[in-house]
Amino acid sequence: MLWFRQYYLGCLSHASYLIGDTSTGRAVVVDPQRDIDQYLRDAEANGLHIERVIETHFHADFLSGHLELADATGAVISYGEAAAGRAEYDIEPLAHGQRLSLGDVDLEIRATPGHTPESISVVVWERAGDEVPYGVLTGDTLFIGDVGRPDLLVSVGHSADELARMLYHSLHEQLLTLPDATRVFPAHGAGSACGKHLSTETQSTIGAERASNYALQPMTEDEFVAVVTEGQPAAPPYFLFAATRNRQQRALLHEQGITPMTLDEVLDAQRNGAVVLDTRDQKMFAAGYLKGSIDVGLEGRFAEYTGDVLRPDTPIILVGEPNTESEARTRLARIGFDNVIGALDDYVAAFMEHPEVVERASRLTADELAERLGSVAGLQIVDVRNPGEVKETGAVPGAVNIPLPQLVARLGELDPAAPTLVYCAGGYRSSIAASTLRANGFTDVSDLLGGIGAWAGSGHEVTAGRTPGEAS
Question: How many Cα atoms within 13 Å fall on the side-chain side of residue 251?
Fold first, then answer.
């Protein structure tokens, strides 16, 4: 009998799966997150033994838990055949058309290159002789409302055009040939940078996607290539790091305590290259933060946005509310940032006793920004949203668009001595960006409370965005 569960990790928009046959106790995990306790608990509770980890491809947006599961259960690690020879650890490649029997439950492997060359999808058959599969795990090939972006591997020798054409054939020759009633279970949902129009739904059917997914509507191959390569969000800079780490034999994730650090120890580590990462919300951060800190609130897409502004090898010191340090470290570990060296002990007392190391952040209302536009000469306005967001909702007059994932790499396009205003959609990313600019020597930085929504909602002018160097 089929046992099937989707695990959805909202902070990374990541879906993974445990599939088993309760009559035999045999099970597999597909696309696991790095912290694996939930798979082990559910397997034990349902009399299942995890014998294989199937990766639909080498993931770029998170560090997968294949090595952790293999260590804990003895499971074999499998990818599609195109991944053979590309991993430092042992894998058992799976061929296109290969069937894996768990008992009554069968898994069918279909090669579906496009998002990456080695991408596969896994068709789940509740019984081997069924006419309609229970579902198909599509990895990053087919999402709900979207398809996988084909442009992430441009920097390592694959063109977006080449991969988009592979994707077109994978969709039409492998996935859309499945019956309409087949459930679709992707590896990601809304918010993931692996696509541009992902739905908040976490499952669908082939028939529903055939009818409503923009990328599956009738069009030529050339038209498909054009539509799926246009308007993709800026890829976080840690993606290449994570994709590389997922091919490597690396250290396993082990839970351990967070080292408490005195203020003097924190300041000394900061002087030697460590970054203080403040995980409080934007309001608390603005009220008082350690000089040089970068603010990435734990309540949002914490790990991904940290990966936008910090290098993976940067030593990290946490500042946050009590008992949040372990969660912050685990979430960072999910993208391979394993370098948390400690956390400031009792930040409230430290800040009160040493106000000389504390600063306040400037945050402007929409009306205050409007006043500054007319009174502050040389005001530099930076929109850190993705280009698609700017195109859809417009921009503050005179703003330049530098998406948050590109900000650190493009600091040279901005004047650190100029008064600077940063904004995003609602205020979360702009606080990250403003703190990053301050940490990199910008002397007068504010961010816009409520983002473009507050600006437009207050009746202020909205225009098309521009890139640095264009005339305003």
Answer: 8
Backbone phi and psi for residue 60, each to the nearest 5 degrees, phi listed first: -110, -20
What three-state secondary structure class fits 363? strand
Query: Looking at residue 464, what is its pLDDT?
Result: 79
Q: Are 32 and 66 in contact (CB under 8 A)?
A: yes
The Cβ of residue 258 has, within 10 Å, a number of other Cβ atoms equal to 16
Contact between 339 and 250 under an 8 Å Cβ cutoff? The reply is no
CB 445 within 8 A of CB 422: yes
Cβ neighbours for 356, distance < 8 A, ≥ 6 positions apart: none
> How far apart (Å, rounded) are the C-alpha atoms in residues 30 and 26?
14
Q: The tokens of 70 are what?
A: 């293999």
Q: How far apart are CA 158 and CA 179, in angstroms?
A: 32
Q: What is the DSSP code (8-state) at residue 214?
A: G
Which tokens go with 69?
């599961």
pLDDT, one tens digit per residue, over 394-444 is 999 999 999 999 999 999 999 999 999 999 999 999 999 999 999 999 999
Q: Domains (ranges, CATH) in the chain?
A: 2-245 (3.60.15.10), 260-359 (3.40.250.10), 362-457 (3.40.250.10)
Closest CA to 6 of 88, 122, 113, 90: 122
pLDDT tens readout for residues 354-375: 999 999 999 999 999 999 998 9
State both tokens at 360.
């306040």
**Predicted TM-score of the model (pTM):** 0.93
**What is the distance between the alpha carbons of residues 43 and 103, in angstroms, rounded to a whole number?**
16
Neighbours of 144 (CB within 10 A): 25
Alpha carbon distance 233, 190 (integer Å)? 12
Q: Please give the single-letter amino acid code of residue 63.
A: L
Identity at 93, one-letter amino acid code: P
C-alpha neighbours within 13 Å on the C-beta side of residue 117: 13
| 3-class DSSP state of 63 | coil
Point out which residues pair with 290 in neighbouring strands: 358
Length of the chain: 472
